[in-house]
Amino acid sequence: MSRTRIFRWREWASPVPPVQREVLTSQPVSKGFGEIDGGRPPLLFVPGFGHGAWAFTEKWLEHAAERGFAAYAMSLRGHGDSGAARHTTLRAYAHDVVQVAARLPRRAVLIGHGVGGLAVASALARYPARAGVLVSPVFGGFATFATALWRNPAGTLPAVFGAQLRLRRGQLFGRELGSSQAREYAARVTGVSAPLALWQLLLHRAPEQPVGDAPVLVVGSPDDRIVPLRALERAARRYGGAPLLFPGMGHDLMLDARWQEPIDAILDWLDKPG
Amino acid sequence: MSYDSVRGAAPAPTDAAASWRGGTPVHDRSENVCVIGAGACGLTAIKNLREYGFGVDCYERETGVGGAWNWRHDRSPVYASAHLISSKPFTQFPDFPMPDSWPDYPHHTQVLAYLERYADHFGLREHIWFGTEVTKVEPAEDGRWDVTISGAKSGGSDRTQRYAAVVVANGHNWSPKFPTYEGLEDFKGEVIHASAYKDAAQLRGRRVLVVGAGNTGCDIAVEAAQQASRCWHSSRRGYWYAPKYAYGRPSDQVNDTVLSLRVPLRMRQWLFHRTMRRTVGDLTRFGLPKPDHKIYETHPIANSQLVYYLGHGSITPVPDVVRFTRDAVELADGRVAEPDLVILATGYLPRFEFLAPDLLNVDAEGRPRLYLHAFPPAYPTLAVTGLLQPDSGIFSLMHWQAVTVATWLRLRESAPERAASYWRRHHSDVSGRFNKAKVKQSTRHWFEVSHVDYLRAVEKTLREMEAGQ
Known about the structure:
Radius of gyration of chain B: 23 Å
Order of helices and strands of chain A: HEEHHEHEHEHHHHHEHEH
Strand content of chain B: 15-25%
Oligomer: heterodimer
Shape of chain A: globular
Radius of gyration of chain A: 18 Å
Strand order of the largest sheet of chain B: 1-2-8-7-6
């Protein structure tokens, strides 16, 4: 059990500035009598840097709804159709996630991708979610920075000096995704102007343990060109498990050619009794 | 009939009475915990006990959740214009934030919507028996409790159920405190308690005397200033009227910024007094008495408008009421007011009629003396939550009390010996005040706590109980 933390001076004395947030949803269709979702918890998908809610509405959201889950996807501040705010920090991202989660009809499962995974990990300490799923989570640190610098110097280096972080197609997708499709997705990935949050990624403390004993699953690919396998394993170990791996896929599991395998595995894990 | 089958709780017992108490059957609810009241405090007790794996039966005599905040309830003290006096970060439960789109100081209907959402989000309603009143709570063997209920759940007649533990969350803002005045019965004007004040229409065109300068009294005086033809506002002493905003932010956020820097009390008092002098100025120029105490020594009053209307001459500040005559009210300074409506904003008193006073370690003045204002020293499986008058929002304090109760009950199960030694070391200590300031005497000052001092004590308790678990 983790140490209980009561005092959150910053949350009390200087709350995160509010923004409008984009939330898209796909609801299961009734198949006869009984509750439409069969008592299954709502899912909240949280995209990471450069991605908006669209990254999940493309494939995963509808698939989850077809399998009977009420599925929601949001955009973090400064992304998609959500509002932007000055001085965006990692704390603000976690705040965005908790705000949306608390508006859902019932206790939700939080599913975060990339930096959204870190936002979810932090949100789990502030909101007693039903469960957490971290998909290719970017927990930051110097190894991740070095990898990004090595694979994409032109997009990464300027961000060190306060310019936008730009992600490249090669970092995000595996080889199996057709190049025209990959180009199309990559064109929708935006630059990230959040210099504070980017610096925090290098230096932040590890997220606190989840409240309410939420189980956490880590999903990723050993061929991810942003998150090294070791980082996935370290993230999973924090929650007492091993990562669920999908070899051959890129960082964007939800858009890659074999997108259905990871989401099915996640939903199976959630459907598993106990 | 198996009412148990719908509960997501511990193994459901059969309906057959397992034992008897004074000729009435006692229905065993095994390891379940009984929560009394489904207001903010009861809801967070259910939610946190469930989170720690306890089965919970909650009894609520009203027909909905929200307790005092549910204006549909007869005993609800809220009036149409009631807004929060603590800003959102201090008001909300720590793990269920209020929406960003709400204002800094939400309206009471938003608080009710928030509590209803909380109940639905965490699926709490299925554990609550509405329209069911707890009439008696008595200790049984092995630290268990016999709870007698009456109402919808028991089919109108009394029914006794046995629980492993009881959490009393019945609130303390529903039983009005009426002061006594000489000649009150002869007074021909109308006299009501603030609990009966619901809408500004009650004031329109009348001559109104508001007694009491608590937050409610100040709110009503401000409304009377706008609606009534005349408004007197009687207070027994000079107070510090904190504005709701300071330095461009909600004042309580500024206050906690200073607190977070661990600035000592005297320095904080000096800073506050200086800020007040520089901004609001000397209130004696409006005829108010000079405060006879420093800030933080009485329950804080957050009201920006009172001073505004004093400055516009719409409120006449007057001292204590001495006596009533047929047509008038005599005041301590010899002045006479001639109101046709008197509103007594004199507060509320905590009441626990279903519990024998010795169970709550009640002292000669009728005050329960409890460890952390929550645990009676002689009964480890009984707890009172929400019996606090904090200088900030109360919901988060209730949340952490509920977490403490749940952690404590778990510890008793998982490590009885450690729990027993913990109990010996701490629970007889009922002297904690959790307030560094010297609080002025009043009927409620004994549970007036500083949210920071109180939460520090709770955190220490939790850490100690969690250690090695």
